[in-house]
Amino acid sequence: MNFLRRFHDIVSDQSKNFDEKIHKLLIFGLDVFNLDIAIISEIENSTYKVLYVITPDDSLTPETVFDLDGTYCVHTLTADAALTFHKASTSSIANHPCYLNFQLESYIGAPIKVGAKVFGTVNFSSPNASMPFTQEAHDYVELFAQWLGCEFARKIANEQLLKNNNTLLKLENVANIGSWEVDLVKDKIIWSEQTRRIHEVPDLYVPELDSAIAFFKVGNSRESISQAVESAIENGDKWHLELELTTANNKEIWVSTFGEAEFTNGCCIRLFGTLQDITESVMLREELKNKKAEAERMLEDRSMLLAKISHELRTPLNGITGMLTTLLDEHREEKRVEKLKVALRSADILLSIINEVLDFSKINHGELKLEPNHFLLKTIFIDLGSLYIPLFKDNKVNFQTCITIPDDCWAYCDNARLSQIVSNLLSNSLKFTEKGEVKFSADVSDLDDKYALHIEISDTGRGMTKPFLDSLFSPFTQEVDAKRSKGGTGLGLAIVKELIDYMNGTISVNSEFNNGTTFIIDIPLAVGEAQIESNQRLNVDIDATNLSVLVVDDNQINRFVLDASLEKLAIKADFAVDGEDAILKCKQRKYDLIFMDCVMPQLDGLEATKILRADNICNHESTLIVALTANTSSTDKVACKEAGMDMFISKPFKLHSIEDAVVTAIASKAKLIA
């Protein structure tokens, strides 16, 4: 068989892989050139590495590395063509290290090139001298080198392609991006591994055009992708869409899909593109959108609040300043008392507005905290009924109460907030019922290990329209008819709803325009523990003439107000303007009672109290320290207690709160003396 036939049979044998073909090719070369050693090398810089080798005794193995200058191949590379030596000992390379070290007499080799770059060499050699190599031998070894160059180029390209493909698969996995292709000529769809993973289909799943589109959610998403495909095929339009997709496991996700068309001779033959799971991005975007809307709503609420409050504050402030101004020249006792009552009532309204604003702000910022305690449930509703009876009587409205709660029913919840809920609703009925009657009922029943509190407040007032009823519990909601408006902040019912939600209760309302309104409230309450109640005033005579009192406040008006209140109890107090001043005065004199403001310059009330207690200047047995502050949150109360304060009174205070503190101080002093 001639050379070309045998060469062709080796290189075209599809049953052999690359390495097997090379092995047969080297054996073929040894036979053709009648030599003993065959090597294919890779050359990089000055390094000669053996890739494939055949030797008689297997003394040389692949991966063996030589210095390039120590091999005959350095001359082959210099010649940049096939090179031969048939008797090296008598040639110009007789002193070459390769001959001196290995005694190779005969050699034939050629450079292997991949593109324009030299990859290595293919060479055959023997320690025995050979006949001079013919031109055909040069052609044969160069043919070997050319085929090897092509195959190495193909192998390198395949390895790079495989590497790129693996990298692409990794990137697809990391970015959750898959690729797809629609061959319109063969009517075939190809999905990448990541595309199948996004669709949650098996690895061997083969999609069709209709089934692929069927994954998109019925409605806008499916219509959009169908129109995009049609437009791409007809007009070559690209698309980028965000669509909802239902996976094979019925999981609903959002995907971003890019697509474009490929045309040949004006006919669309292929569609291809990418598919990315963007569910997290869409959810995050939606969350940010909602937060932005919430921030805008809060900003709008704040603007409305400021506008509303600035208007509502003027009425009680006008009552206070107007009455107090006219008192300066009023000498008739009856008129003075009447004007003072109006000023005090205006002050109560002002305080109520401020409290509503503070409650709304706490609720809006998630800072409202309930402060539960044990109490007799019935007393709250009896006290509220007693409070509102004269108010309804003054308005000539019949007020009926029905409190069917047992006298010994102890509950555990925030009784102040519970009272606030009912009081707000009764105030609404009082405000909007001009004639007829208001009914207030409260009863309780057992619910597993809790109480089920049921409250109903109904009136025969103006009622509400359907649109107004739908937005009843939204902040700033009020009657838009100026003739019917009764004023107010519009926060009351919004606060009521939030408080009931905080208590895990429900509120419903039935109303008919011009025919009354009924509020129904159901709140679960924890069962409370009976408490021993004591009334110190019954056992202690309020004689405070011998009580030493210190008032600590940096504000002169606050000091003046408290001094006036203490004078009514025949107490002449000392005063300190900050915490440092208070400590100095306590070192100079022993005090039975200290009213301590919390927020002051230099040294605040909390730190001053800690020092007084820690240094035993004022111990708990001899000195009662009462927090008197405008900071009224539960956190502030805890901070005052931890600092060493015994009682807590919020500003603006009522006189009875001061009396309670004085009574407690008198009782403590009497106990200490006894």
Name its key features.
20 helices; 674 residues; seven-stranded mixed β-sheet; alpha+beta; 23 strands; single chain
Question: Describe it for me?
Answer:
Helices cover 45% and strands 23% of the residues. The termini are far apart. It has 674 residues and is α+β, with helices and mostly antiparallel strands. The strands form four sheets. Strands 12, 13, 14, 15, 16, 17 and 18 form a seven-stranded mixed sheet that branches. Strands 3-2-1-6-5-4 form a six-stranded antiparallel sheet, sandwiched between helices. Mean pLDDT is 86; it is low at 480-485 and 534-540. Strand 7 and strand 8 form a beta hairpin. The protein has 20 helices and 23 strands.
